[in-house]
Amino acid sequence: MSWVEGADGGPYGIHHLPYGIFSTAKDPTPRVGVRIADQVLDLRKLATGTFFLPWIRPAFQEQTLGAFMAMGRPAWRLVRLQLTELLNAARYREQSATLLTPIGKARMHLPFDVADYVDFYASEHHATNLGRLFRPDGEALLPNWKHLPVGYHGRAGTVVPSGTPIKRPSGQRKGPGGEIGFGPSRRLDIEAEVGFVVGAPTEPGSPVAADDFAEHVFGVVLVNDWSARDIQAWEYQPLGPFLGKSFATSIGHWVTPLEALEAAKTAAPEQDPAPLDYLKESERFGYDLALSVSWNGVEVARPPFAQLYWTPAQQLAHMTVNGASLRTGDLFASGTVSGPEADQRGSFIELTWGGAEPVRLDGAERTFLEDGDTVTIGATAPGPGGETIGLGEVTGTITAA
Question: Of 60, 178, 283, 289, which is least surrounded by CB within 10 A?
Fold first, then answer.
């Protein structure tokens, strides 16, 4: 129970407490906040007193989450316990109410400085669908797919916060007659993903075991990895995604702490063949996140994250097995989340089967994104005691090239 009105039973209740960076018209300096119901608790103001321990207070004077995330799991757990007590105990109500800002008056910012960005390809249903589209006469999955989490390095500098307009990218395209041209993408797409934010860094040459996932990952954000399919189709062989992906990746404003998703843990799909030793987990789990994709306000897909073949812990282990270091603010995303059913496909290239099966939207048949279209990705997860947690949505509107 929380003394904050609307918190109990809502998606941003006492069991969630996601972190973000906000400012206001009166105080335009970005600062760390925690969301509770439809309010933002100002941690910079809270840290000016004696509520937090002296060694934690400086982290909340920063304009991003980086300093706090770098402190590691003991600090994350301690602060979460303190915030839970503060927002739960009635004795704190009078003094803490002055630290709350209505969400409608808060301007949200990118929650952390993105150090590196890695995008995986971890959904078997998504990989199978694309394999059937791109290689109709061959095997849907390439030989390596069930032996390692396939991924690529993206462009950290083009990760943008939810609400940022997405300008239609231009690039080289191969025409139907084989001619090579240049111009705005005609097959602009989305990818509904879940991203994991690294807090505790590592030294170069120090792989992270799958079982140490929670020691390094601070929290979770929703991701839309916008994709220009026509540009990508021409450029990606043999080195993979490049300009068709790097123009923009949107993330939500709110970082859900990993600890808030304890009740959402669920058994991950069985793997065959068995993975190599460095990818084995003593407790193999995923997260029961139900994603929702809305296109111009109409829900068109509900991808199930729980069916991801390669777990986030395996993704982290593979990403570092060669000795690559982790940096505070590293973001690694799941890749498109798709399920076995037609209405569970997390990209429009799948949803419309390469444009051959248009979606009815606003009385018209649609395949890929048009200028002015808005896409919003949300997600819910089970919380403790039957509560439901709602992850911070990520949205973006397409503007002309």
Answer: 178
Architecture of domain 117-399: Alpha-Beta Complex (3.90)
Give the C-alpha separation, 394 to 378, whole Å: 7
123 alpha carbon, distance to own chain's centre: 15
Position 362 confidence tier, pLDDT thresholds 50, 70, 90 = confident
Q: What is the pLDDT of residues 319-345, one digit of tens each?
A: 999 999 999 999 999 999 999 999 999
**pLDDT in the model for residue 95:** 81
Rounded to 5, what percent of the chain is helix, strand, coil?
25, 30, 45
Q: What is the pLDDT of residues 33-92, one digit of tens each?
A: 999 999 999 999 999 999 999 999 999 999 999 999 999 999 999 999 999 999 998 888
Q: Which of 16, 125, 126, 216 is catalytic?
A: 126
Write out the two tokens for 197. Answer: 């934010």
Nearest to 310 by CA among 289, 349, 281, 330: 281
126 has catalytic annotation: yes
At residue 152, the 3 state secondary structure works out as strand
Is residue 118 within 8 Å of 333, Cβ to Cβ?
A: yes
Buried b (16+ CB within 10 A) or exposed e, 163-179: ebebebbebebeeeeee
On whether the CB atoms of residues 193 and 346 are closer than 8 A, the answer is yes
pTM as predicted: 0.97
Q: Which CATH class is domain 19-108?
A: mainly beta
Q: What is the spatial distance between Cα 336 and Cα 293, in angstroms, rounded to a whole number?
A: 12
**Three-class DSSP category at 297:** coil
Taking 90 as the threshold, does the pLDDT of residue 1 lie above it? no
